[in-house]
Amino acid sequence: MNSLPYQADHSPLAYSVGITLDRFIKLKQGDFPFASGELSQLLRDIALAAKIVNRETNRAGLANIGGAFGQTNSHGEEQQKLDVIANIRFIRALSKGGEVCAIVSEEEDAVIDLQNTSGKYVVAIDPLDGSSNIDVNISIGTIFSIYRRKSPVGQPIEQKDIMQPGHQQVAAGYVLYGSSTMLVYTTGNGVNGFTYENSLGEFFLSHPDIKAPLDGEIYSINEGLEHEWEPGIKSFIHTCKTQKLQSRYIGSLVADFHRNLLKGGIYLYPSTLKNPSGKLRLLYEANALAFIIEQAGGLASDGKRRILDIQANSLHQRTPLLIGSRNLVHEALINLNIKQVQIEW
């Protein structure tokens, strides 16, 4: 029987959809010889929950799951219905996978001890960031951090498993639910972005090896709080305007961060008179994004020190955040009289 060798069809009618997230994770599994596949499975569990939250987000207007839930979380913030739904979805996915021993969630007052003494990982997560924007159809997101537990496997979790500085993360990422849904993550070996293809139900690699521009033309800050800024922040924003940078502020952390990561820019949520310790949470917002931006070549600071060097001392600890393109963050720190001009991190 005669046969012809297979030749790939490169015609425009048979475009390539790229490599799936699952296959990419398998290819990169060798980066973690200590993980024996658990970290890879954990990332798959997060991706599965993200697909479900994406579905719920897309049908929110039709299923009456937009709007306020009628309760507040531990921070005194009004919970949205999708906050609660996303929290449930991610907790279920992380609980059933078997790799996680504890979860820290923005929507829960205390640590969720899964009583899984064989679990090797702790996950800190903001299940639905920017949820106040749901009703007006503005991009929202999920932010997550993954840490290896410090206590011996087989024993109950301890405080040291939870209160780890950001530089001890083994993986971090976010999911952006917008005009398209994207999952961006790092395991300490660069940053890669995956776009969700609804008809196939898969995330495909769309943004390999993301690098943040060293400079940018965008600054993102809530200028309505200008009267509460310290002088150094006011000086830096004045410099941005003088240099004709563009002001772009969505009010959804993931969306603002994602745009600046790709296009170059800086996001600032500094300390204010009302929130002298800042407003963003260290364990499940700032640490994750700081890990990502550093892997992409940028910087993240609280205005005094590297975000990833901060030792957490409380579950929902807040922090100021200056994050984005390296040169812009550097200039902001100079305006705040940070003398370490030669930033080593």
Structural commentary:
With 345 residues, this protein is α+β, with helices and mostly antiparallel strands. It folds into 2 domains: 16-207, Fructose-1,6-Bisphosphatase, subunit A, domain 1 (Fructose-1,6-Bisphosphatase, Chain A, domain 1, 2-Layer Sandwich), CATH 3.30.540; 218-335, D-Maltodextrin-Binding Protein, domain 2 (3-Layer(aba) Sandwich), CATH 3.40.190. Helices cover 29% and strands 24% of the residues. The protein has 9 helices and 17 strands. The protein has helices at 21-27, 38-58, 60-63, 81-97, 159-162, 231-242, 253-263, 282-295, 326-335, and strands at 68-72, 78-80, 100-105, 112-113, 121-129, 140-148, 169-177, 181-186, 191-197, 202-207, 218-220, 246-247, 266-269, 280-281, 299-301, 318-319, 321-324. The chain has an 8-stranded mixed beta sheet with strand order 4-3-5-6-7-8-9-10, sandwiched between helices. It has a 5-stranded mixed beta sheet with strand order 12-11-13-17-15, with helices on both faces. Strand 11, helix 6 (231-242) and strand 12 (246-247) form a beta-alpha-beta unit. The radius of gyration is 21 Å and the shape is globular. The mean pLDDT is 89. Pathway: Carbohydrate biosynthesis. It catalyses: beta-D-fructose 1,6-bisphosphate + H2O = beta-D-fructose 6-phosphate + phosphate. Mg(2+) 2 binds at residues 126, 129, 285.
